[in-house]
Amino acid sequence: METGLKEKLLDEFERVFGSREGAAVYFAPGRVNLIGDHTDYNGGHAFPCALTLGTYGVARKREDRKLRFYSTNFESSGVIMSDLENMKAEEKADWTNYPKGVIWAFDERGMKLTCGMDLLLYGTIPNGSGLSSSASVEVLTGFILCDLFNFEVSNQDLALIGQYSENHFNGVNCGIMDQFAIAMGKKDHAIFLDTSDLSYQYVPIHLKGEKIVIACSNKKRGLADSKYNERRAESEKAKEELQQVIGINELGDLTEELFDRYKVAIKDEVRLRRARHAVTENQRTIRAMQVLQEGDITAFGKLMNESHRSLAEDYEVTGVEMDTLAEAAWGQEGVLGSRITGGGFGGCTVSIVKEDKVENFIHNVGKIYKEKIGYAADFYVVDIGGGPEKL
Ligand code: GLA
Predict the structure, then answer these.
(1) Whether the CB of 178 sits within 6 Å of ligand 1
(2) 25 - beta bridge partners?
(3) Is 231 in the pocket of ligand 1 (CB under 6 A)?
(4) By mean pLDDT, which of 4-8, 221-225, 263-267, 378-382 is the weakest?
């Protein structure tokens, strides 16, 4: 954490809410997924890690039942007010629908707030970058509620509550990966997560001479949520078709061989490609974890590239912006692998780049992107951080 940041945040809280009495400071990370996308709602594996980028929150209880929210990232929205009697998602509530969703989800589980709260947020995750700023806010809110109101909730349950609020309050049918990676984050480790039963393994990421570089496309994610829900529905339908001929619970239960044997059951070419991605991406993620444990980062990088191709051709969630970033990266010296990460339809790529080539990488990929797309991409050299904490 930047020195003096805690003090600055408390100053800002005082400026916005009149005093800092009773306020405490918290943090929850963002996440990047190294490989395994659109597998988490198909009972497959994902391989994300928490970042040192994330969301800071300053919070305190109030005497009344009001909720006051302020984000330094959306200063022009000012203080957004609500109260515990009015827990519905509303357009005018804007970003506060995320913390409100979590308060609502706690209430649904019988954890009722006895009074309102003031909450100030400051995010270091670029907005709409696909590094899960919303899941970061959800897990952060849950963590704060536990601390302020003495609820006992495990970190894994914080992830599930965050996902529940996003599904049922905010209407995005997301899987568990983002909230899980954030709530369960561990410094310098990625999480090999089996979403069929939430079993997981921490895998140390000791890059020697390489860096993780995020390239943020700055493409507006416009219809991303509805297209995400559409992909999820397509996968679901393909699974039901396969279930007519083979006893599986999820697409993630299939090996590539079994998929090839039974795929004729899928009666639509688009759905066939969606299911093929879900199956091959899961198997790639399992292989990626194995090669990484053997210390073969070159093989890991190749699997990342294959993952991008599958997300582009079979799952069709990349688009020209993300393809330009990945393809430009593949052409650079010192790049072990590069792929879109997260839900897609904009967002960012993650690349593993030799440390002494990072500067060139940023310069060259940035130039190619700007020339082709017309506006600039932003680059972040990131570190793997831990889960939520009180500062
Ligand atoms: C979004 C969702 C996740 C996951 C990814 C794609 O980030 O929130 O649950 O499905 O997309 O892997």
Answers:
(1) yes
(2) 58
(3) no
(4) 221-225
CB neighbours of residue 335 within 10 Å? 25
Residue 344 Cα, ligand 1 centroid: separation in angstroms? Answer: 8
Any ligand 1 atom below 6 A from CB of 37:
yes
Listed in sequence order, the DSSP H helices in the chain are 5-17, 97-108, 133-149, 155-168, 177-183, 224-243, 256-262, 269-293, 297-313, 319-330, 358-373
CA of residue 343 to ligand 1 center, whole Å: 5
- CA 166 to ligand 1: nearest atom: 8
The owner of tokens 């493409």 is: 219
Q: Taking the CB of residue 247, how many other CB atoms lie within 10 A of it?
A: 7
Residue nearest to ligand 1 atom 1, measured at CA: 343
Q: In what order do the strands lie in the sheet with 199-204?
A: 45-46, 189-194, 199-204
Q: What is the DSSP letter of 384?
A: B
pTM of the model: 0.96
Q: Which of 136, 228, 230, 314 to mutate to test the pocket of ligand 1 (most atoms within 8 A of CB)?
A: 228
Contact 161, 105 (CB under 8 A): yes
Distance 158 CA to ligand 1 centre (A): 17
The alpha carbons of the chain give a radius of gyration, in whole angstroms, of 21
Token pair 């297209």 is at which residue?
A: 227
CA distance 231 to 175: 12
| Contact status, residue 354 vs residue 209, Cβ threshold 8 Å | yes
Ligand 1 pocket check for 177: Cβ under 6 Å: yes
User: What is the C-alpha to C-alpha distance for residues 242 and 268, in angstroms, rounded to an integer?
Assistant: 12
Catalytic residue numbers, as ranges: 178
Angle, vertex CA 325, rays to CA 320 and CA 330, nearest 5: 120
Q: What are 175-227's pLDDT values in tens digits?
A: 999 999 999 999 999 999 999 999 999 999 988 899 999 999 999 776 677 89
By the 8 A CB rule, do 31 and 49 touch? yes
Q: Whose CA is nearest to atom 2 of ligand 1?
A: 174
Return the DSSP state at 117.
E
Helix axes 133-149, 155-168, angle to 10 degrees: 120
166 CB near ligand 1 (under 6 Å) = no
Q: Is the CB of 40 under 6 A from ligand 1?
A: yes
